[in-house]
Design goal:
Largest sheet: 6 strands, antiparallel
Strand order of the largest sheet: 5-4-3-2-8-9
Structural class: alpha+beta
Order of helices and strands: EEEEEEEEHHHHHEEEHHH
């Protein structure tokens, strides 16, 4: 188990976890199998088999070396990494908004990862019930580490968690990971934070995702789609989505400040 210190985190930080199962061998023998990205210090972009979503970390108070801090637990090994020139909170939120609701990466895309484990190569040799067979060209699915790389604008985006842990475009933040600490108590406002984050998850993605999917279906059926009109409608949906949730984002940031800085 590892405990992540929440206060020093910032938007755009990447959290790498052991994860299970691992699809990639990774540069260090497959230590990391899952990646998520901080949207705020306690709100994280998570890629699941159903869709990309937002998740609030269940925070608690811990004690280590006679000092108390607020953090959250991760099973197994963990590593926090940050881009050399960290993105702004606004840029992270805007990029994550465009990712919300996307499906998991397709089998065809997963087969392109360079450091697949032998087990993953064997599993991906045939269709899988839990991943799409191929990607929608307008809204391609994402691997967890790929979504992080896309939001951060890394030079390589189709990347495994292990390779994301090794890329020199990010730097390690070992001080944020505590290998052992004593649990003191669950934070009393953890559920309040989760409620706010869940509200954004319900509002941020659906309309934008539905608009993209509707256009994709029309293209599949051979319908002639007005490209300029489509792009204008998506831009309008995106702008409205960001605006609709801006107040909730401010509330989350204010609550986090009270929890972590107050």
């Amino acid at each position: 188990m590892s405990i992540i210190k929440a206060k020093p985190l910032r938007p755009g930080d990447v959290l790498l976890e052991s994860g299970n199962p691992k699809i990639a061998a990774g540069a260090e023998g497959g230590v990391f199998g899952h990646a998520s990205l901080a949207v705020t210090r306690l709100t994280w972009m998570q890629v699941g088999l159903r869709a990309i979503m937002l998740q609030a970390r269940p925070i608690a108070r811990y004690r280590s070396e006679s000092k108390t801090f607020i953090g959250f637990e991760i099973d197994g090994a963990a590593l926090v990494r940050r881009r050399h020139a960290p993105p702004t909170a606004t840029d992270v939120w805007a990029a994550v908004t465009s990712e919300l609701g996307r499906k998991y990466a397709s089998r065809v895309k997963l087969q392109q990862i360079k450091d697949l484990t032998p087990e993953a190569i064997e599993a991906l040799a045939q269709p899988l019930d839990y991943v799409p067979e191929s990607d929608d060209p307008l809204t391609p699915g994402r691997l967890c580490s790929e979504a992080c790389a896309v939001v951060l604008g890394l030079s390589q985006t189709l990347i495994s968690p292990g390779a994301l842990a090794a890329t020199d475009e990010l730097v390690d933040l070992p001080a944020l990971v505590v290998p052992y600490a004593t649990f003191v108590e669950a934070h009393p406002r953890s559920d309040e934070l989760a409620d706010l984050v869940n509200t954004i998850s319900r509002r941020a993605a659906p309309r934008l995702s539905r608009a993209l999917q509707a256009c994709a279906e029309r293209l599949k059926e051979g319908e002639d789609v007005d490209r300029d009109a489509f792009l204008a409608s998506i831009e309008a949906e995106f702008t409205d989505t960001v605006g609709t949730n801006s107040q909730l984002v401010r509330e989350i940031e204010a609550l986090e400040a009270q929890i972590l800085d107050g």
